[in-house]
Amino acid sequence: MFALEKANKSLRPIVIGSLWRRCAARLGVAEVRSNVTTFFMSHYTNFIQFGGESDGTTRCAQVTQLLAAAWAQHPDENPLVVIQFDIVYAYPSADWQVQFDVLAGSPSKSYDNGHVHIGDYIPFPASLRHYWSNFESMQGTASTLHFSHYQGQAHKIACSKGGQQGDAFQTVRFTVTTFPSFGRVFARHGACTGATICDNVFIVAPLAEGLTLAADLKQVLKQDLDLDLDVPKFNYFFPGH
Predict the structure, then answer these.
(1) Greatest CA span in the chain, whole angstroms?
(2) What's the pLDDT score for residue 241?
(3) Would you give the DSSP letter of residue 16?
(4) Among positive and negative, which fits the CA dihedral 172, 174, 180, 185?
(5) Taking the CB of residue 136, how many other CB atoms lie within 10 A of it?
(6) d(Cα 212, Cα 238) in Å, to the nearest integer?
(7) pLDDT for the residue 1
């Protein structure tokens, strides 16, 4: 376990798996990356997820800039705005049942305020089906993680949701699990476009419509995935102003 210092001087614990585990996970990520990337790029018309790509951060920034370039077409009373925010403790917090529902392609309960019913289809990248047993062994039941810090002292930590940010496969699991929820919300707000790199979200939209989408997304992520938006860290950018 490593303690990384954040900008506000607080600490972020990062659990890193053993060398053998990380090697195996990276091989799995390499196998599914192309299929997962195609899935993220082609499923929704106004939302893209860049998580899992080697240059995802750069591409997400470039797409956001392109979307924001149309600012002059919007009136001053409802200007085009870029809203940026992230999710509180995203990787360790996502609900496990949602992950397995997405991998199965079918919900076991109602989602999205009743818009998704038991038995409906949930989109997912087919390549991940090969790793069902891996996900089940890692996150199929509550467990106790054993780890050592930098001085070699052993520790235990209870684990019943989310995953370890230092796990190479966790980015894929997290982004695939949350992608349908993001996509459905964006699909309901046609005036908005967006791009995401893992748990960092960028909404490009007229101000009023963008705030409405953010409120909708906040409710859906909490109800369906037990994830909280970091509201105090919301940033608003007004292109051209």
Answers:
(1) 60
(2) 67
(3) -
(4) negative
(5) 13
(6) 17
(7) 57
pLDDT beneath 70: ranges in the chain: 1-5, 11-19, 140, 149-150, 165-166, 241
Pairing relationship of beta strands 193-197 and 47-49 according to DSSP bridges: parallel
| Strand locations in the chain (E) | 2-5, 11-14, 47-49, 80-86, 143-148, 154-159, 193-197, 200-206, 235-237
For residue 165, the model assigns a pLDDT of 67
Report which of 97, 92, 124 is spatially closest to residue 111, judged by C-alpha positions.
97
Check residue 166 and give its pLDDT: 66
Separation between Cα atoms, residue 237 and residue 130, nearest integer Å: 42
**Residue-level pLDDT at 135:** 80
Q: What is the pTM of this model?
A: 0.85
CA distance 225 to 97: 9
CA atoms within 13 A on the CB side of 51: 21
What is the DSSP secondary-structure string of 156-216?
EEEESSS--TT-TTHHHHHHHHHHHHHHHHHHH-TT-EEEEETTEEEEEEEHHHHHHHHHH
